Amino acid sequence: MKPVRLIEGRSAALRIENLDTDQIMPKQFLRGIDKNGLREGLFYDLRFDAQGVARPEFVLNQPAYADVSVLITGNNFGCGSSREHAVWGLQQAGIRAVVAPSFGEIFYSNAMGNGLLLVTLPEADVRGLMDDADQGGRNAVAIDVETLTLSAASSPDHAMRFEMLPRHQRMLLEGLDAIGLSMTYQDQIAAFAARHWAAQPWLKDVAVGAS
């Protein structure tokens, strides 16, 4: 994973509450054994009708929002099944951050573990960012992972603060996934193991001794 320190980009408003992972990445796009091709499945049933024709009213189908990197969306984004493909699809489509009043718990963990930044803000701030996004020229945002602040082009002097677990902040800043974070504690793990086996040597390699 690459470190994530500052995300600057244009935003799009997705005014949908309780958007679940089945809608973010429909089941028919989960057939592969790798992560390839998930961009095409992102929000598929929202982006296209039953005949596969793009819905012009869907925000990400509109030319003005073709290159957005930040989604501003409704409560409980990413609820439903534990579908990590939803995170991968968003990233493949160029989405680097999602801002919402709340997120599905499993989706939140999957996203932060893959370097997709999720920002939780009060509903009033989210509505303001949605209104900015809908105006096109006012939809630039900057998200600073070091200071945990979000700034919008419409009010550059007002930085919105958000919270994040120190563990997740470190993972983003250092470009670590869960395994990489665990590996930074190798010395402590080795020291614990040494103390454990010294205190209880009869437990070590017990299966080998039994054979």
Total number of strands = 7
For the report, how would you describe the main beta sheet?
7 strands, mixed
Distance between the termini: 43 Å
| Structural classification | alpha/beta
Number of helices: 9
Backbone shape = globular
How big is the Rg? Answer: 21 Å
Low-confidence spans: none
Give the helix level as a range of percent: 25-40%
**Strand ordering within the main sheet:** 4-3-2-1-5-6-7
SSE order, as H and E? EHHEHEHEHEEEHHHH
Set out the fold topology.
Layout: E1 6-14, H1 21-24, H2 44-47, E2 70-73, H3 84-92, E3 97-100, H4 105-113, E4 117-120, H5 123-134, E5 140-144, E6 149-152, E7 155-161, H6 166-174, H7 178-183, H8 186-199, H9 206-210
Parallel strand pairs: 1-2, 2-3, 3-4
Antiparallel strand pairs: 1-5, 5-6, 6-7
